[in-house]
C-alpha cells in the first residue's frame, strides 16, 4: 500500500505543480476534470443508499459552479448556479412522486455545493494576487499534515479518533498532523508570502482543522454508503474524492484568510 501511495504521489505531484504554476486555462481544465471525476464517485456512493440523482445533471451543475468562479462577473452563470435547488426539485416532478424523492433532491443539492461550490474556491484562490503562492501553501501544508498524521498514527497511534467514522485514525496521529501541518504553514507563510509568524500559526491551526474534518466529512459519506474508498482511480489513495477531501475544506479556508489579510 505504501509503495503504491508513494508511486502515485511521484506521478501526480509534478503534474499538480505544473498546472498550479501555469494557472489560467490549464488550471481550470484540471479542476473541471477533477470535478467531473468527483461527481461520478459521489453519484455512485449515494446510489448505494438507494438515491438516484441524475449523474449528468449533477456534473453539469458542478461544472457551472466552477465556471462561475472563473468568470464571477458573468451574470448568466451566476443565475444558473442560483437556480440549482429549483432545477433539481423540478426534475423530481417528472418522476411523479417517486420513493425518496425528497432525499434524492437533497443529495443532489448537497453534492453540487460540496463538490462544485468548494472546488470553485480553487479557481478563486489561484486568481488572487500571489495566488500561486497561496495555492502552494494550501496544497503542501495539507499533504504534509496528512502524511504526518499517517506516519505518527501508524507508529504510535493507540487511542481512536472518531472510530465510528474513521476506525484507523488516532489522537496520536491527529497530533502528528497538527505539529507537521502548522509548522509547514508557518515556514511557507514566512518564505512565500512574508506572513508574520503569528498569522502563520493561526492559519496553520485553521488548515489542520480543515484538513482533519474535510477527511472525516468525506468518511461520513463513505460510511453511509458502506464502502472504504470512494473509488479506485488512484492506486494507494482510492478515488478522486479520497484525494481531495481535505483540500475541499482547506482551500476555502486559505482563500478567505488571504482576503482578510489583504
Overview of this protein structure:
The protein has one domain (2-260). Helices cover 78% and strands 0% of the residues. It has 262 residues and is mainly alpha-helical. It has helices at 2-22, 24-47, 55-70, 75-82, 84-93, 101-127, 131-156, 171-193, 197-225, 240-260.
Quick structural summary:
With 262 residues, this protein is an all-alpha fold.
Helix content: over 70%
Overall pLDDT level: 89
Largest sheet report? none
Task: Find the structural class using helix and strand composition.
Answer: mainly alpha
Using the alpha-carbon principal axes, give the shape: globular
Detail the poorly predicted runs.
none
How many strands? 0
Distance between the termini: 42 Å
User: Number of domains in the coordinates?
Assistant: 1
Q: What is the helix/strand order?
A: HHHHHHHHHH
* Count of DSSP H/I helices: 10
Percentage of residues in strands:
under 5%
**Radius of gyration from the CA trace?**
19 Å
Task: State the main characteristics.
262 residues; mainly alpha; 78% helix
Write the layout of secondary structure elements.
Elements: H1 2-22, H2 24-47, H3 55-70, H4 75-82, H5 84-93, H6 101-127, H7 131-156, H8 171-193, H9 197-225, H10 240-260
Helix pairs in contact: 2-3, 2-6, 3-4, 3-6, 5-6, 6-7, 6-10, 7-8, 7-9, 7-10, 8-9, 9-10
Amino acid at each position: 500500500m505504501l509503495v503504491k501511495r508513494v508511486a502515485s504521489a511521484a506521478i501526480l505531484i509534478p503534474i499538480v505543480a505544473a498546472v498550479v504554476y501555469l494557472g489560467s486555462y490549464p488550471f481550470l481544465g484540471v479542476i473541471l476534470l477533477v470535478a467531473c471525476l468527483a461527481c461520478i464517485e459521489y453519484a455512485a456512493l449515494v446510489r448505494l443508499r438507494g438515491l438516484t440523482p441524475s449523474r449528468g445533471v449533477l456534473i453539469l451543475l458542478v461544472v457551472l459552479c466552477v465556471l462561475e468562479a472563473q468568470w464571477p462577473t458573468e451574470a448568466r452563470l451566476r443565475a444558473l448556479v442560483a437556480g440549482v435547488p429549483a432545477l433539481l426539485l423540478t426534475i423530481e416532478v417528472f418522476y411523479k412522486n417517486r420513493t425518496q424523492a425528497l432525499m434524492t433532491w437533497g443529495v443532489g443539492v448537497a453534492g453540487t455545493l460540496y463538490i462544485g461550490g468548494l472546488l470553485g474556491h480553487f479557481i478563486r484562490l489561484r486568481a488572487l494576487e500571489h495566488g500561486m503562492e497561496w495555492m502552494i501553501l494550501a496544497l503542501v501544508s495539507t499533504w504534509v499534515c496528512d502524511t504526518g498524521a499517517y506516519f505518527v498514527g501508524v507508529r504510535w497511534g493507540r487511542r481512536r479518533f472518531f472510530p465510528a467514522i474513521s476506525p484507523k485514525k488516532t489522537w496520536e496521529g491527529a497530533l502528528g498532523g497538527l505539529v507537521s501541518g502548522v509548522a509547514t504553514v508557518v515556514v511557507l507563510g514566512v518564505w512565500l508570502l512574508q506572513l508574520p509568524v503569528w498569522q502563520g500559526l493561526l492559519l496553520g491551526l485553521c488548515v489542520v482543522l480543515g484538513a482533519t474534518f474535510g477527511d472525516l466529512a468525506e468518511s461520513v459519506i463513505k460510511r453511509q454508503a458502506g464502502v472504504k474508498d470512494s473509488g479506485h482511480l488512484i492506486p494507494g489513495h482510492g478515488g478522486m474524492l479520497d484525494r481531495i477531501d481535505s483540500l475541499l475544506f482547506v482551500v476555502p479556508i486559505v482563500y478567505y484568510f488571504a482576503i482578510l489579510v489583504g
